[in-house]
Design brief:
This protein is an alpha+beta fold. The protein has 7 helices and 4 strands. Strands 2-3-1-4 form a 4-stranded antiparallel β-sheet, with helices on one face.
Length: about 210
């Protein structure tokens, strides 16, 4: 038993949550289509060479939910068909007025409440803040931009906006082996010998 003094507070250590290849594949299938039934997931896993029962898949999904790895389920829609075709990327560089912290909190609250703001984040580097906003049309996007800059221009040194033409929207889980496998196959396809250092190191140790 370890003795502790009053000056040595107990630090709660988070348990490392491990997911295996099957968990990862199930999560990727749910990310692609959250409405897939366990039966559908079993069939798709079978196509990947993973044989499982519906009960086994259901138990794994339930475990992932209990662990908090799955936070919820969402729906992807065709933005043009729901009349939200304008995707605008915003970048901001801040100034530092005396009330900066309070004003930044007000800006964050505005973005959290705004139905057209899909993503916002603090960044490091030449810019301090990025946002993604969706609009019904260019006029609407311009009106919001004018108001936004008027409301929070006192903390903005530089503001830039870019309309995006979406090529891909979506993502999937991958690990280091998946990454290296993709890079190697692409290098082979492109006829190049460029291989990541991590792959070279692993091949030497094996």
């Amino acid at each position: 038993m370890t003795n502790m003094t009053m000056t040595e507070p107990m630090v709660e250590q988070k348990k490392e949550i491990k997911i295996d290849v099957i968990d990862r594949q199930i999560l990727n299938l749910l990310i692609a289509n959250a409405r897939d039934s366990t039966r559908t997931i079993v069939k798709k896993l079978g196509g990947l060479g993973i044989e499982m029962s519906e009960r086994g898949v259901g138990k794994r999904i339930e475990r992932l939910e209990k662990l908090g790895i799955i936070h919820g389920y969402t729906t992807m829609v065709d933005l043009i068909q729901v009349n939200m075709p304008i995707l605008r990327l915003i970048t901001v560089k801040f100034t530092s007025p005396k009330d900066f912290v309070a004003r930044l909190d007000e800006m964050k609250q505005y973005l959290s409440d705004a139905p057209y703001c899909d993503f916002s984040a603090r960044t490091n580097g030449n810019i301090d803040w990025i946002e993604l906003k969706f609009f019904n049309n260019h006029e609407q996007a311009q009106q919001e931009e004018d108001l936004y800059r008027a409301w929070f221009g006192d903390i903005m040194e530089d503001y830039r906006s870019f309309d995006l033409n979406i090529h891909k929207m979506g993502w999937q889980l991958f690990d280091e082996e998946d990454f290296n496998r993709f890079i190697q196959s692409t290098c082979k396809k492109e006829g190049t010998d460029v291989i990541p250092n991590s792959v070279k190191k692993k091949s030497k140790t094996q």
